[in-house]
Design goal:
The structure holds two protein chains of two kinds. Chain A is an alpha+beta fold. Chain A has five domains: 164 residues; 127 residues, YNR034W-A-like (Profilin-like, 3-Layer(aba) Sandwich); 103 residues, PAS domain (Beta-Lactamase, 2-Layer Sandwich), CATH 3.30.450; 74 residues; 165 residues, Heat Shock Protein 90. Chain A is built from 18 helices and 19 strands. Chain B is built from five helices and nine strands. Classes of the chains: A alpha+beta, B alpha+beta.
Chain lengths: 732, 185
């Protein structure tokens, strides 16, 4: 591309130089045609036409270059403005002196040529010619008189006789030539000082006519040798019908002087006449040379400016390319060993280094990107939620597990404060509040287990937070790490209670039967043999032992029920129908048991036997808590939390309510305020509810009494209406 | 008219074909005769009509050189073959202010004639009497020859300063149409 442009530029230069050379040659030949005229005169017009055509061509070339410059200027091509300025400068530098020279040359020529001619010289030349004429007139009159006398002196009437005497007459008169001819022009006699000349100098018909009309003619003529002669034509007054022509040499001094005056006058007159032509010739030559000089200078100005600016344009173009990110740009080096070459070389060196740096940077960026992707993949693959906050507490980034655990799109909340999480999801408030509280208290590193009550049930998060340090000691934010340990906690608890049950079975239940049997054996063996009073004591004691052992067995069985893994037989269950059936069993009790069902047709997936156990436990607790006039309300309703539908079942009573101190732990084993019971009723209830994926809560409403509320995930509307085959048992 | 306008006008005029403008010289009579000595002679009567520009130049002492050009060539000759005859008769017409006469000078014979009037000088200029062309014996009697005669004002003989304008202005293109005929000797 660049080579082609360079070749094209060379061709342009060559063409322009050839054209200018041809024009110069043409001008030279025009000059030769005008000055020397040796066969070149006929080429004047073709040469002039060629020159004009060449000048038009050169003008077109200049115009084309200027148009290109203007186009580049308008398109803001790099370097075009500098080129235009330089071109204008060069043009002015060429135009002004040439124009001044042209103007003053034309003016000088015009005034100079005019100064050759003035009135005084005109008058002097005219006077000189008149003086010469007057001198010659005197001589002419004398010669005319002499000629008349000569003709009059001829007395012979015979033309032949006259002819014979002409030689003598010529010699006597001193004439150069003497001729006698008739009025019809027939020559009768001729005498010439040079006997070799046989023909007379002919007289003009006008002269002869003048003589014939009766008026003698005398005039000046130029002889064969260029000298002045006086020509006299005299008509014969004796009526012999002959005319005498006598040619007299003008005296040499007079001839020379008069000849000189005539030559000078002619030259002056001719020159004066040619004044305008002289001016025209000079003006034409000067104009052609001026135009050639101007056009050549204009072309050279534009060409030189563009060539000079080319490296600068290249650098500007290169700089623009670098600015646009093309760091591989290399510019052609100018040939001349000058500062521009050094500049272009430095530019190339700079772009080379930038390119190398860019490549290194790009490699680093790719490496960083790879590490970032690696880290993101690792974080994305973690089941632990990770969230980064900046120093202002604004969320910066989070992994996928964070979204899944918190059940919100944390990525959408980038740049927002952590508290926004609590606004988005009400159930996340404990998590958010705990974190913010820790931050506010200036806790550097913290760890907490936070229970959230979500629409789908209870969720336990194990949270840790620590400062985020990019450099040692430079904290730029915090990183939160949290795990959903709901299943883990449940499994641990199940395992703990399983262990309790196992030990009870092993350590307590096994000795109970021998104890009971031993007590019954003691009673049977010694009751009849002992005195009555002792027998009564023994009977009471053994009865107490047996009764307490039975009670302990029942307790151990409860533990076993609680601890051992259960097999749920879940099936779609119409909640309201189910509650109606359960409550119907309590129609005979002393208390008032009423229902308020507001989830018609909604179905939960539950094991009816286990759920019935839950309801009986709750109702039993309520019956025990209320007196004979007590009121118990079983209600249901539909609710939605975080997009999940649930069915809420509440058992409210008009009793004293839960002990405020224990209300947070009523579902824990062995937590009870009753004198009877194992303390496992509500724990088992909670376990069954949890096994169904639900949550349970106990509270003392402001209206009084106590209330236990449980939520079970509701199946989608219309799902599970038809009783299908019973689902396989699921491990809760 | 200023100088620049003159230049432009001159260039425009130069572009016009001179044939359109040249009609100042006419052949009134022209004849080739055979002399007793076996010479082929040319006789011609040529009418010159000088326009005002040329007349003005003549009155101001500018010598005018008229050239009578006679060519003879084989009618079947190729263009690059040399002419058999190429005669140029050059005659200078000028005005002599001292005598007030018009002078005709034959450059070949170095003869001069003076005339009181310009018309008489032009008549004498246009009179060609027994101008020898070629000996008949030099010609092949079986062949045909082309004879061409034309007359023109020689602009290259004008004074130097006048030539550019003379080349450019049609007033100075005084010439006749070529007189051609075929001769079988």
């Amino acid at each position: 591309m660049a080579v082609a442009a360079m070749n094209r530029r060379r061709a342009d230069v060559l063409a322009a130089l050839v054209l200018v050379a041809l024009l110069l040659a043409s001008l030279h030949m025009i000059s030769a045609a005008v000055l020397r005229s040796e066969g070149l005169g006929q080429w004047f017009i073709p040469l002039l036409m060629f020159t004009v055509f060449g000048l038009i061509l050169l003008f077109g070339l200049v115009g084309w270059n200027l148009w290109q410059l203007l186009r580049d200027y308008r398109q803001r091509v790099a370097g075009s403005r500098l080129s235009a300025r330089l071109s204008m400068l060069f043009l002015l530098l060429a135009l002004v002196p040439v124009s001044v020279v042209y103007f003053y040359s034309i003016r000088f020529l015009s005034t100079g040529i005019d100064s050759w001619f003035d009135l005084a010289v005109d008058s002097a030349m005219e006077d000189a010619l008149t003086l010469s004429k007057l001198s010659l007139d005197l001589h002419k009159r004398e010669r005319l008189k002499a000629s008349v006398n000569i003709l009059d002196s001829i007395e012979d009437t015979s033309q032949t006789a006259i002819a014979l005497s002409i030689n003598d007459l010529r010699a006597a008169s001193g004439a150069v030539e003497m001729t006698l001819f008739t009025l019809q022009g027939k020559i009768l006699a001729l005498s010439h000082v040079n006997p070799d000349i046989l023909s007379p100098m002919p007289a003009d018909g006008g002269m002869v006519q003048q003589v014939v009309s009766g008026q003698d003619y005398v005039g000046v003529a130029t002889g064969r040798d260029g000298r002045l002669l006086v020509r006299c034509l005299v008509l014969d007054r004796a009526q012999r019908d002959i005319v005498l022509q006598a040619l007299y040499a003008v005296p040499e001094s007079l001839s020379d002087l008069s000849g000189n005056v005539q030559d000078a006058y002619e030259a002056y007159r001719t020159r004066a006449y040619m004044r305008s032509q002289i001016k025209f010739s000079f003006a034409l030559s000067l104009s052609l040379v001026l135009l050639l000089g101007l056009f050549a200078a204009a072309w050279a100005a534009v060409f030189t400016a563009r060539r000079l600016v080319q490296p600068i344009s290249d650098i500007a173009e290169g700089t623009r390319a670098v600015a646009e990110g093309d760091y591989d740009k290399q510019l052609p080096l100018p040939k001349a060993e000058d500062e521009l070459r050094s500049l272009v070389s430095s530019f190339n060196s700079m772009t080379r280094r930038i390119s190398l740096s860019r490549n290194a940077l790009e490699q680093g960026r790719r490496k960083l990107q790879t590490q970032h992707n690696y880290l993101e993949t690792v974080l994305g693959g973690l089941s632990t939620g990770v969230m980064a906050l900046d120093s202002a507490g604004l969320i910066q980034t989070a992994n996928r597990a964070a979204d899944q655990i918190l059940r919100v799109s944390v990525a959408e909340m980038e740049g927002k404060p952590l508290s926004e999480l609590g606004v988005r999801s009400e159930s996340l408030k404990p998590f958010v509040e705990h974190m913010i509280e820790g931050f506010d208290q200036g806790v550097r590193e913290g760890r907490a287990e936070i229970a959230l009550y979500r629409g789908g049930g209870r969720q336990v998060l194990l949270c840790r937070y620590s400062p985020l340090e990019t450099d040692p000691g430079r904290v730029v934010g915090r990183v939160l790490v949290f795990d959903d340990v709901t299943e883990l906690v449940r499994a641990q608890r199940d395992a703990a209670w399983g262990e309790v049950a196992r030990r009870l079975a092993h350590e307590i239940k096994n000795p109970l039967t021998p104890i009971q049997l031993s007590a019954e054996r003691l009673r049977r063996k010694y009751l009849g043999k002992m005195p009555l009073e002792d027998g009564i004591v023994l009977d009471r004691a053994t009865h107490t032992i047996v009764q307490q052992v039975e009670a302990m067995k029942a307790m151990v069985n409860d533990f076993s029920d609680y601890a051992k893994p259960t097999q749920l037989q879940v099936e779609p269950l119409h909640v309201d129908e189910f509650l109606g059936e359960v409550v119907a069993l309590y129609e005979g009790v002393r208390q008032t048991v009423s229902v308020q069902l507001a989830a018609p047709g909604r179905v939960v997936k539950a094991d009816p036997v286990r759920l019935r156990q839950v309801m009986h436990n709750l109702l039993k607790n309520a019956l025990e808590a209320t007196g004979e006039q007590g009121r118990i309300l079983v209600s249901s309703r539909l609710g939605t939390e975080e997009g999940d539908d649930f069915v809420e079942i509440a058992v409210s009573d008009s009793g004293p309510g839960f002990d405020p101190e224990l209300i947070g732990q009523v579902f824990e084993p062995y937590v009870t305020n009753k004198t009877k019971g194992t303390g496992l009723g509500l724990a088992i209830v909670k376990r069954i509810v949890v096994e169904h994926g639900g949550v349970i809560d106990a509270e003392n409403p402001d209206s009084g009494g106590g209330r236990v509320t449980l939520r079970l995930p509701a199946l989608a509307q219309g799902a599970g209406l038809e009783r299908g085959p019973r689902a396989e048992g699921e491990n809760a | 008219m200023n100088t620049f306008a003159q230049i432009i006008a001159a260039i425009v005029l130069a572009c016009l074909p001179s044939a359109l403008l040249a009609d100042d010289v006419e052949f009134q009579r022209i004849a080739l005769t055979l002399s007793e000595e076996g010479l082929i002679l040319l006789d011609a009567e040529i009418a010159y009509d000088l326009n005002d520009t040329v007349s003005e130049a003549l009155e101001n002492g500018v010598p005018l050189t008229f050239e009578t050009h006679v060519q003879m060539r084989d009618a079947g000759a190729w263009i690059w073959e040399k002419d058999i005859i190429d005669h140029r008769l050059r005659t200078v017409l000028r005005y002599r202010p001292l005598s007030g006469l018009y002078e005709l000078r034959n450059r070949q014979a170095d003869e001069s004639l003076s005339f009181a009037t310009r018309s008489a000088a032009l008549r004498a200029l246009g009179r060609v009497v027994a101008m020898p062309i070629i000996e008949r014996e030099r010609l092949n009697l079986d062949r045909e020859y082309l004879v061409r005669v034309d007359v023109s004002l020689d602009k290259e003989a004008l004074p130097l300063p006048m030539r550019p304008m003379a080349y450019l202005k049609s007033d100075w293109s005084i010439s006749s149409e070529s007189w051609e005929w075929r001769l079988r000797p």
